[in-house]
Specification:
By secondary structure, this protein is an alpha/beta fold. It contains ten helices and ten strands. The strands form two sheets. Strands 6-7-8-3-9-10 form a six-stranded mixed beta sheet, with helices on both faces. Strands 2-1-4-5 form a four-stranded antiparallel beta sheet, with helices on one face.
């Protein structure tokens, strides 16, 4: 079943057209990678889905419902959460307070407590750091916190913008192991923007390659890993 659909989406920043008619489908329960060079339109695609950028034409449909006119707050309530590039945690709040900020749309106190404990199971280091300020965490811990904060909204669809950015390879492996658990154990659908194409395709079911605001190539992760142009342009010697 298609959970998310973008159909011929055009979006601009002022005079700059960032998306030039993108069409993608994300199946429920899948992990989908969005690849491409800087400026290809990957982050703009996520921002358009989450309501931070308004499409000039085309449409975004989530779970059979068109999203035009919806505010970012309304879109979160529908079941879409975004983990932004650079984490953007609240550095002056504790780990626990950051997590609760992710549940701002909810009023079920018991459920919020339960979900915080589930985040701590997923990322045990966050439980150890629960009373520390977010700004005191390492880069990898901040990325875990950003993901945990997103999970506190109980999303069906989680959008992740460059989750491996600035992290050492071992931490990247830990982050993607956690993402696979979120997908498998919670059934959360993941749409991941990622510069590290090797890691993204190793963990995804399907992928899209963007070039200058358009979909240049799409296919299963296995097909894209065998695609010579994708390997030469985006994967190189990454391991």
């Amino acid at each position: 079943m298609t959970l998310l659909r973008l159909e011929n989406v055009v979006a601009s920043y002022g005079a700059v057209r960032a998306l030039q008619g993108i069409s993608i489908d994300v199946q429920s329960g899948a992990i989908v990678a969005l690849l491409g060079a800087n400026g290809a339109g990957k982050s703009t695609t996520l921002k358009t889905i989450s309501g931070m950028v308004r499409p000039a034409s085309g449409f975004v449909e989530y779970d059979g419902q068109r999203l035009e006119g919806k505010t970012p707050n309304q879109i979160v309530r529908l079941g879409i959460a975004q983990i932004p590039e650079g984490r953007k945690i609240f550095k002056d709040l504790t780990v626990s307070e950051n997590l609760r900020m992710g549940a701002y749309t909810r009023k079920d106190k018991a459920g919020i407590e339960q979900d915080q404990e589930l985040v701590f199971v997923l990322f045990p280091i966050l439980k150890e750091r629960a009373r520390q300020l977010g700004g005191s965490l390492s880069g990898g811990e901040q990325q875990m916190l950003a993901i945990g904060r997103g999970l506190m909204a109980r999303p069906r669809l989680l959008l992740l913008d460059e989750p491996s950015l600035g992290l050492a390879p071992l931490l990247v492996a830990d982050i993607f192991q956690a993402l696979r658990r979120i997908n498998k154990e919670r059934g959360t659908t993941l749409l991941i923007v990622e510069q590290n194409a090797h890691v993204a395709l190793k963990n995804a079911n399907f992928g899209y390659v963007l070039q200058v605001g358009r979909v240049a190539t799409e296919g299963t992760s296995e097909e894209l890993q065998r695609n010579r142009e994708v390997v030469e342009s985006y994967m190189g010697t990454q391991q």
